[in-house]
Amino acid sequence: MVNKITSLAEYFKKYQQSVADPDGFWGDIAETHFWRKKWDQALDWRFEGKDAPNVNWFVNGKLNITENIFERNMFMRKDQVAIIWEPNDPKEPEIKLTYGELFEKVKQFANGLKKLGVQKGDRVAIYLPMVPELAVAMLACARIGAIHSIVFAGFSATALADRVVDAEAKVVITSDGGFRGTKSIPLKAIVDDALQTCPSVEYTIVLKRTGEDINFNNEKDIWWHDLVDGLSSENVAEVMDAEDILFILYTSGSTGKPKGVVHTTGGYMVYTEYTFKNVFQYSDGDVYWCTADIGWVTGHSYIVYGPLLTGATSIMFEGVPTWPDAGRFWDIVDKYKVNQFYTAPTAIRALVAQGDEWVNGHDLSSLKVLGTVGEPINEEAWRWYHDLVGKGKCPIVDTWWQTETGGIMISPLAGITPTKPSLATLPLPGIQPILVDPEGNELKGNGVEGILCIKHPWPGMLRTTYGDHQRCFQTYFSAFPGLYLTGDGAKRDEEGYYRIIGRIDDVINVSGHRIGTAEVEDAINQHPKVVESAVVGYPHEIKGSGIYAYVICEDLSDTDLANIEAEIRATVTKFIGPIAKPDKIQIVSGLPKTRSGKIMRRILRKIGEGDATNLGDTSTLLDPGVVDEIIDGAKVEV
Ligand code: ATP
Ligand code: MG
User: Fold this and answer.
1) ipTM value
2) Which tens digits make up the pLDDT trace of 458-482?
3) What keywords sit in the KW lines (predicted)?
4) Between β-strands 183-185 and 178-180, what pairing exists: parallel, antiparallel or unpaired?
5) Which terminus of the chain is less hemmed in, N or C, by CB atoms within 10 Å?
């Protein structure tokens, strides 16, 4: 396969080359794509100065990303399966769409959008469950040059409205409802509610999925099936500039108000294809499955764009890992003989808690590669994944990246880079990480820990935050002039491997010692009764910051309850040392999480500080009830 690295020596060689001559390195890769007009210059950039950041990849190049998914490969892939769709209910039949079939649907729906007056540059909000039409809708937007803004279909009406207003979307694409486990979610009703405050929206396209009754406004609402009925699938792709916007995607909101991250066409295309085939070591004929929702960047880059650009077979799953039972993931792996499996630590931890019996009894022998993304993976979960799911024979790619980075940045190449539990290992070719101290001084050499920044552009990086370029500069480029600030802290170990230790706000300074929350959580989780924990700092008179641990335990008896705090402290002392012992431990039944499963530590920090009066933007919170319970337990002011 073209541009696929096959050995560690080759990785090092490519890496050197990519640093010595980034333009030449990425230019060579881009040559293998289909361009309507070749670029004049591979890269023109500045992270500082007027209107910074200003990053242009493949300057004046013209292309359409869907021509690179479809036309470029059609002669060899027409009858190959592009998407396997596994429904929520295992009794419902699956759908397999070949590249040829998917192409027809994309072109036809593209014509439907055009019929509604959608033009190049218009924003289209997509609020759909994980059904094949979600992929069709996004690719149809790309086909005609409309900018998609996908909003995870688990978000509330307010969260949806915020995003639709910010992007000034002209059309919203949704469905009557969506299935998740035993639940049926009334998506159209949520959209109706949201659209009361969204004047830019002219039409709502409604896909029939659950068949439940909905309110239908004949002037503004159009059924998907009526829109495409009888429409031709003749469609010529819009010619896009390499730097025309492909999509907007709002971040998870773990640290504050979600940001409308903007990705453009040419660079994102080159970067997602390159990282997909290299990190997962995808080979022709493999079946690949990423369990993320397409509402997150992981789904954009590694269910749709990366795999389809590579010509892969990509599974899309509508349901949840625990329904009808906790063996569902492994049923699906077995059913389709999945070769590469990519999920999040939160899903792994949830399955660890359900017990090993759900994994055993499935034939998982097809698996070659396992991946994780989204949070640091604790060592216990890593071991479970490696030993039980991968039977000790599948490399784990712990992939560190962000909505803003467009694609994977630091990760092993599966089976090529030797791995270590909980380490994201080495930067991909083209990625130049740098660790700095809080004053911005570079921390050179190995065995150092600091703030993770990137010092040179890569093709998949964000170009701006939608409608507010100043915010982009402020958030990512102002702290350390000339560097992209990731917001994460990292350690570079003696071998030069990176370990992500969490967000910089999550590093606690205890009596002058910098302690990563992830590390303390890792230690606490070693206690056999602990299911999950979240650690934050709080103001402490003597130490500067104290350590506050919120801990979920399983079936505690009265004696356990009396002893658990002391035992947890002893566990932390054993694994890290007495300096990291939590000062306060609060046993809770749940933790505040975003809808993508990440812990919102900023809320726990506020509660830890004893002030629950202003918790900030909580629109992406999965279950607000959890917060009330924790506030009660912490006995703080509200
Ligand atoms: P917001 O930026 O709105 O606060 P968010 O950072 O959670 O939300 P995402 O872009 O979805 O939004 O997540 C990126 C972050 O997830 C990274 O900055 C990092 O903190 C964490 N992360 C992702 N992958 C890994 C990984 N493999 N190891 C450790 N942390 C990871
Ligand atoms: Mg972030």
Assistant:
1) 0.99
2) 999 999 999 999 999 999 999 999 9
3) Acetylation, ATP-binding, Ligase, Nucleotide-binding
4) antiparallel
5) C
